[in-house]
Amino acid sequence: MSVIIVGAGLAGLTLAFALSYLTQGKKDIKLVESIKPDKFLHPNHNGRTIALAYGLCRKIDALNLWSLLDPIATAITRIHVSELGSGGFFSLDASTYGIPFLGQVFELNQAKKIFFNHLEKNKNITLYCPNTVILVTQYTDYILIKLNNGEKIKGDLLVAADGTSSNIARLCGLQWKKRDYQQIALVTQISTDLAHQGQAFERFIRNGSLALLPTSRGLSSLILCLEQEQMKTMYNWNDKEFLTYLQTIFGWRLGKITKVEKRYFYPIESCTRVSTIAQRTVLVSNAAQTLHPIAGQGLNLGMRDILTLTDILISAWKTGKKAGDFSTLKQYQKQRIIDVQTTIDFTDLLVRIFSHPCSTLFIGRTLGLMMINDITYLHNIFIKRSIQ
Ligand SMILES: Cc1cc2nc3c(=O)[nH]c(=O)nc-3n(C[C@H](O)[C@H](O)[C@H](O)COP(=O)(O)OP(=O)(O)OC[C@H]3O[C@@H](n4cnc5c(N)ncnc54)[C@H](O)[C@@H]3O)c2cc1C
């Protein structure tokens, strides 16, 4: 029987390819996606770039997938972290850690398109698209799903990789806990007088944060997270007004900011699930947990879900077990719990500390940033998250 994956985002596609590669195409994989590949410029992902940590890029390479992303990726060799209005900063250099880069940046829609086209080379993966699941029936030994076109698919395991508003989680009654940061993310690309030279910047500003990631064509990708009210006033700004504001909050580390591309606005969603497993069902990546983008950890964490699930399924198959046995799913959940919780806590801590206008905290976090090179704990967290 097959493994059914719902959601052909980067997480779902990576899982499908990983299982296929490690079983030499011997496993039957069904992939259900609601948006047609030819329209695969996912409206929710316009303008969004992703930074994937060094360690993950290597693991994806071991699955024979990095060569697909490499042509569209830009290496991060240095990360500079600072706060507006304070002298506090620290930086991480790939060379200090003896690695060629700290992470790689690519455009999400582009990456998904490339992965989608790669499906053609995997004959054991059957794509159902554009389709959605309208019914899930969970049995002890198998799972049955019904698609919107009436077709039924039987499998050993159902993997929900269908993103934040996971329909599968809803159909299986898996509850979520939502956190509303009341912030909006603005994403776009900017041109600067000075070349980025592989540098990424994380800058904490009053009531929000700003990240700049180096991308191809010498541009930098901007992710600006601010309170809803502040962002609302920005909706109507023209490019000149926006550039002036951006220069003020970012400073001159890349010289003059000369041009801004189309700006996209996204409400910041954050949610975690009470449980990520049910009978013959497992939730992964954004379907399992959606993080504030402040530390760029969402897909990194999601990819670690995928890698762990892949390892566990391959081991289970080797010992003759079925893919969706509850003991296997329990093992998966147990193995993921610490990494997931630490990453959620770390992200949440950053949002709370750096979104708070209170001046005592401001002094505290400034001192924190100034001392961070000596504070092994925080420094290690940043480094671990960068190269993991
Ligand atoms: C502004 C911003 C910047 C970010 N930057 C980073 C970063 O630098 N690094 C990082 O690690 N993370 C980052 N993230 C988070 C990252 O984008 C997400 O974690 C990641 O895209 C999640 O991938 P996914 O495959 O789990 O979900 P999605 O990409 O949401 O994919 C879900 C798929 O399921 C499909 N689907 C949905 N519903 C159904 C249904 N009912 N039936 C069938 N199919 C369905 C969708 O069409 C989609 O293709 C950022 C997020 C934001 C908002």
Automatic annotation (TrEMBL):
Record's NCBIfam families? PRK05732.1 (NF004356), Ubi-OHases (TIGR01988), UbiH (TIGR01984)
Quote the protein name from its UniProt record: 2-octaprenyl-6-methoxyphenol hydroxylase
**Which pathway features in its UniProt record?**
Cofactor biosynthesis; ubiquinone biosynthesis
Give the Enzyme Commission number: 1.14.13.-
User: Which InterPro entries does the UniProt record give?
Assistant: FAD-bd (IPR002938), FAD/NAD-bd_sf (IPR036188), Ubi_Hdrlase_CS (IPR018168), UbiH (IPR011295), UbiH/COQ6 (IPR010971), UbiH/COQ6_monooxygenase (IPR051205)
Q: Main EC class of this protein?
A: oxidoreductase
Q: Which cofactor does it need?
A: FAD
Keywords tagged on the record: FAD, Flavoprotein, Monooxygenase, Oxidoreductase
Alphabetically, the GO molecular function entries are: 2-octaprenyl-6-methoxyphenol hydroxylase activity; FAD binding
**What family does this chain come from, according to its entry?**
Belongs to the UbiH/COQ6 family.
Domain named FAD-binding is located at 150-346
Matching entries from Pfam families are given as: FAD_binding_3 (PF01494)
